[in-house]
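Appendix B. Worked example

We walk through a single record from start to finish. Start with the input: the chain for Foldase protein PrsA, Lactiplantibacillus paraplantarum, length 298.
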Amino acid sequence: MKKWLIALAGVLLTFTLAGCGSKTVASTSGGKITESQYYSSMKGTSSGKQVLQQMILNKVLEKDYGSKVSTKQVTKQYNTYKSQYGSSFSTVLSQNGLTTKTFKEQLRSNLLLKEAVKDKVKITDKALKKQWKSYEPKVTVQHILVAKSDTADKVLDALKKDSSQANFTKLAKKYSTDTTTKNDGGKLSAFDNTDTTHTSKFLTAAFKLKNGEYTTSAVKTSDGYEIIRMIKNPGKGKMSDHTADLKKQIWDNDMSDSTVLQSVVSKVLKGGNVSIKDSDLKDILSSYLSTSSSSSSN
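Next comes the structure step. The output line below is what the pipeline stores for this chain.
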């Protein structure tokens, strides 16, 4: 399954349990299957119980945090994934049993859960200092990617004579194999230390550069040989200047921490005035409601 589907925190299935009733769900030569029969069958399964747990959670999240998640935010995130997968996006959705509508519903649920994490998790000074150790602010670079080391040497020789941005841009257009950036002089979108689109070797080399500097030896990665030039590096500065960014990174990390999510979901449900009307399902939230640990990033 694709990484971005896994990242939806496992609370976002979009099934709906049919309400108890005599309406026919399906008919066969052997008779009809009614909503009540389907419901009775589903509620006895682990998947059916999981769906109900998720429906309950989404209802409470929507009430508590719905005003903080806009349609614009959902659309923006959706378009990011759509752009990332390009022409294969619709196929990926289909393979995972999703439509545009249901995927957007999942994205919204995930954003609601993140608002709950921001609300329920206390970030300590210790956690901020820990995150600060690896923190690097967003930088903007241009790069030249080539397949062979001798080509990289040829580019580096040319940069020794003229390391200006104009010449780097010219060389990128001539030599770079990165077809998405070469015509723009190899310029990449700004990134920080949480970036996952570049290799760790690439990031380490990039963050060492000051404005106008370039890597005087090619960086060997799984993509080939990279030559990187720094366009804008604001410098790390003081921790107090980056508190908002540090908190954002911690919250992003929390979204993939099952222990933190368990605690947050427990708090959300405990405050949600949830009442289970079906006696067969009375313990469906017991694993969450019995959780008493406090949420904190420390």
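Two observations about the output. The chain has a mean pLDDT of 89. Strands lie at 24-28, 31-34, 122-123, 140-146, 219-221, 224-232, 296-297.
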